[in-house]
Amino acid sequence: FGRRRSLFNLKLKKQTVYALFAISLIGFSAVILLSFSNASPIFVRTQKLLEAFFGWGKIFLPIALFLFGLLFTGARMKLARANVAVGFILAWLSLLGLTKAGIVGLEIFGNIADLLTGGGAILILLGGLVVGLVVLFNTPIDQIVTVITAIVAAVGQLTQKIFIALFVKKKEAATAWNKNGADRNRQITSS
């Protein structure tokens, strides 16, 4: 009774295994991206499955798989760095949990909420989002806070302009219309 020999004695180099894994992830990413076309019944089923698991976050799954595939290629690109893939996944999963998107988002939020209550889960997931963005962009937190502050200020100014355009001008138009109506009523009664 000696050692049994396997039918396939594959001794692949470590780099070859990484390359095969990278090609598989990038290929899977491409197939998921193609499934958004709903061009065949398999793609339609794939989209329903992705919708169930990830909700709105399904649009970021091909990006996540592609980034991890690039990571395993060993390519010397900025996108192929570990911080990009890990930061993206952390930010994406945090957003899924915050919005309770799909089964994955519900489970992420639910498991954290079971430990720390709903408010604690929101705080942890917001922290995960910020950490994910810091890691993704490989920038200090003060720069991210500056950018977020600028975005919030711009959105506030835009909202203020829209509010003024919608309500103040309507009010001015209504006042002018009422004034003209009152003038017409005086002309009718004085005649």
H/E series: HHHHHH
Overall morphology: elongated
Structural class: mainly alpha
Figure out the total of helices: 6
Amount of beta strand: under 5%
Largest sheet descriptor = none
User: Low-confidence segments, ≥5 residues, pLDDT <50?
Assistant: none
What is the average of the pLDDT values? 84
Helix content: over 70%
Total strand segments: 0
Radius of gyration (CA) equals: 28 Å
Q: End-to-end span in angstroms?
A: 122 Å
Description:
- The chain is mainly α and 191 residues long.
- 80% of the residues lie in helices and 0% in strands.
- Helix 3 packs antiparallel against helix 4 (82-99) and helix 4 crosses helix 5 (102-137).
- The protein starts with 13 loop residues before the first helix and ends with a helix.
Short overview:
The protein is mainly α. It has six helices and no strands.
Layout of helices and strands:
Layout lengths: L13 H22 L5 H14 L6 H13 L8 H18 L2 H36 L3 H50 L1
Helix pairs in contact: 1-3, 2-5, 3-4, 4-5
